[in-house]
Write a structure and sequence with these properties.
Elements lengths: L1 E6 L7 H12 L3 E5 L8 H6 L5 E5 L6 H10 L4 E2 L2 H8 L1 H10 L8 E3 L15 E5 L9 E3 L2 H10 L13 E5 L6 E8 L2 E8 L11 E3 L3 H14 L3 E9 L2 E9 L9 H15 L24
Parallel strand pairs: 1-2, 1-3, 3-4
Antiparallel strand pairs: 5-8, 6-7, 6-8, 9-10, 9-12, 10-11, 12-13
Length: 300
């Protein structure tokens, strides 16, 4: 098979996906790599030629690679993951609405262009977790204990830090009490794996990163996320709160850390998905009627 990987500068030296690219090459497949952040790409010729069996994206949220992947999908080429599913999880505000409207356990979510606007949220819902709607890798995630602290942080932030990239949205969610441990659930084409890691909100906690068993409830939630968003290779951040598991983030093509034989498993999944062809996600992001407006706020 012939595959095209779009890899952004942030992942230039990362094992995921570079080790996958090497593995596919070792298996005899041709893999072309495009670097959207530092290359001139003849986009019309590269995509319209249709010479690749599938396009695969490893990018930061808001990076230029997603536009290239969407261009490939627009002319009918296979993308891994489905490009419409990627768009649905890259925007954390959109992902929260889709997930809650589908009955998944996601906190109430607020959105604003400026952090100080969150001071209007009822104090009973504090502490808040505030982060960019286009964020990734735990970037700029803050735990805010009170409206006063929120205002202090907003006023003391450096220019450009008050919102998401290029002045984009921020989101805020009530903090879910937990042990300081995040549960990362990875899905590799239907197979689920869980890794326990230290929460970015509690960096001082001593948590050894390790693979852990999946409970049936968490496995059901993780599988349902794949079905709702139309994802095949993805990760879900789960907190085990006092009322049960809560989903706090969804990522396409994550690191798959601690997944046994991750490189071989992900490589085999990419080939399988490339042969399978385009997938129609359950959520049609092109339809304005997909998400009820009532799902944007309010309690479950």
């Amino acid at each position: 098979m012939r595959l095209c990987f779009l890899v952004e500068e942030q992942y230039r030296y990362d094992g995921m996906p570079l080790d996958v690219i090497r593995q596919l090459g070792a298996w005899g497949h041709q893999v072309d790599v495009l670097w959207p952040g530092r290359s001139l790409i003849p986009i019309s010729e590269a995509i319209q030629a249709g010479s690749h069996d599938a396009w695969v994206l490893k990018t930061v949220s808001g990076g230029p690679g997603l536009s290239l992947l969407e261009a490939a999908a627009c002319v009918g080429l296979t993308t891994v993951n489905d490009v419409r599913a990627i768009r649905g999880v890259r925007d954390k505000a959109l992902a929260a609405v889709i997930a809650r409207s589908s009955g998944l356990p996601v906190p109430v979510t607020y959105a604003a262009a400026r952090a100080e606007e969150f001071a209007q949220i009822p104090e009973a819902q504090y502490p808040l977790v505030v982060k960019p709607a286009d964020g990734s890798s735990g970037r700029a995630v803050r735990l805010v204990e009170s409206p006063e602290q929120l205002l202090d942080q907003a006023l003391s932030a450096e220019p450009g830090e008050g919102g998401g990239a290029a002045g984009g949205l921020l989101i805020a969610q009530p903090y879910v009490p937990n042990s300081g441990t995040d549960l990362k659930v990875y899905c590799v084409a239907g197979e689920l794996y869980a890794t326990e890691r230290c929460s970015p909100l509690h960096p001082g906690r001593a948590v050894r990163e390790r693979q852990v068993p999946l409970t049936p409830e968490v496995a059901r939630i993780a599988a349902e996320i794949g079905a709702v968003f139309g994802l095949d290779l993805y990760g879900v951040d789960v907190l085990l709160g006092p009322d049960g598991p809560v989903v706090v983030d969804i990522n396409d093509f994550p690191s798959f850390r601690q997944v046994p034989d991750a490189v071989a498993r992900v490589s085999a999944a990419v080939l399988h998905l490339a042969r399978k062809g385009p997938r129609q996600p359950v959520v049609d992001l092109a339809s304005p009627a997909t998400v009820p407006l009532a799902a944007i706020g309010g309690d479950r």
